[in-house]
Design brief:
single chain; alpha/beta; 13 strands; Aspartate Aminotransferase, domain 2; seven-stranded mixed β-sheet; binds pyridoxal-5'-phosphate; globular; four-stranded antiparallel β-sheet
């Protein structure tokens, strides 16, 4: 059977290996496996969320509230925005899909960083758009502007803090770049790790409300999958001025968020203290990775997120190292598909991190 030929240009997204797969492939008991591959919160979500989800477990027969009033009210209050400046997706991934499908088409141009979140390219290629990338690994705003001025892309992605490198873009630099961009170019600011950046260095964080108050062409993305510990519930959001949100709604499937997920995300917002504790813990444990890297003479990228990227010396092949670790039940992310000889490791609990240091000690 032949398919839409643009699919030939798309590489299927490879997610971090799930624990179940390692159990089956290597015969390791599930409780012996440590997954530090997908930047999930190792403490999960607030206990209040679990309680709330249990309390509505009998409500699975009816379709969810498609107006999402509870979650939209909570998010609107958090960011001091109007409900029509907000759209909820099954993960912020789905909002990326909405945005690209709403704005781009065959022949459109989409500009992004040389190394960044892989799904931008996948969704852009689905509509036959061309991908433009900077050369530098960090978000270099001068380079972004030069490419912008030359190609006038339809969409620009700014991922800050960036995945899979963990570095953060100076908010002032980002804002002065956006100021120079034409209002018909959609600038998507992916803030999946914004809670971490805000904690470590507020100069690397943006306030979504301020962003959309200033710019009619910006879409800010946030998610419950990382700091809020709800990766399994699939809830993310987009914040923009009403005309952008209205366009995105036209490509949204109805009932895209489940009843349980809507409840979980709403209640997660009521326990900010839990999230802040997890973030503080994250940066304490990250110091141990920095010390480990220093002791080993390995380059570590200064991280504003909940993961660290270790650039390995040439003689240590990142795919091989990741494979060796996998055999021992430690799942990390090999970054060779991004053109980097590096591994990305989510900062886990103290004992998960101990296990990482113990296993890598002889390998690195
Ligand atoms: C994890 C991540 C997302 C999407 O996460 P969802 O689970 O789909 O909300 C988006 N952007 C970046 C940079 C990420 O790391």
């Amino acid at each position: 059977m032949t398919f839409n030929s643009t699919l030939d240009t798309i590489k299927t997204y490879e997610a971090g290996k799930p624990i179940e797969l390692v159990v089956r492939e290597y015969g390791i008991a599930p409780d012996q496996i440590v997954k530090l591959a997908s930047n999930e919160n190792p403490f999960g979500c607030s206990p209040k969320v679990k309680e709330a989800v249990r309390a509505i477990i009998d409500n699975m027969a009816l379709y969810p509230d498609d107006s999402m009033v509870k979650l939209k009210t909570a998010l609107s209050a958090k960011y001091a925005i109007a409900p029509n400046e907000l759209i909820i997706g099954a993960g912020s991934d789905q909002v990326i899909e909405f945005a690209i499908h709403a704005k781009a088409h065959e022949g459109s141009k989409v500009l992004m960083n040389s190394v960044t979140f892989a799904m931008y390219e996948v969704y852009a290629k689905q509509v036959g758009a061309h991908i433009l990338r900077t050369a530098s690994r960090e978000h270099d705003m001068e380079e972004f502007y030069a490419l912008y001025a030359e190609h006038k892309p339809d969409i620009v992605f700014l991922c800050t803090p960036n995945n899979p490198t963990g570095d953060g873009l100076d908010a002032e630099k980002m804002l002065s770049f956006i100021e120079k961009v034409d209002s018909d170019t959609l600038v998507i600011v992916d803030g999946a790790y914004m809670e971490y950046a805000r904690f470590k260095d507020p100069s690397k964080a943006v306030d979504p409300r301020e962003l959309i108050a200033r710019f009619e062409n910006v879409l800010f993305l946030g998610t419950f999958s990382k700091a809020y510990g709800l990766g399994g519930m699939r809830v993310g959001y987009g914040i923009a001025q009403a005309p952008i949100i209205k366009a995105l709604y036209k490509v949204r499937p109805p009932f895209n968020i489940t009843t349980l997920s809507l409840e979980a995300a709403s209640v997660a917002l009521e326990d900010e203290a839990f999230v802040q504790e997890c973030i503080a813990y994250n940066f304490e444990e990250m110091k141990r990775y920095e010390a480990f890297a220093a002791a080993k003479g390995i380059n570590i990228i200064d991280s504003y997120t909940n993961f660290v990227t270790l650039s390995l010396p040439e003689e240590k092949n990142s795919s091989k190292i990741a494979q060796e670790l996998l055999k021992k039940g430690m799942i990390v992310r090999d970054l060779s598909s991004y053109g980097l000889n590096a591994i990305r490791v989510t900062v886990g609990t103290a004992s998960q991190n101990d296990r990482f240091f113990e296993l890598t000690n002889s390998l690195l």
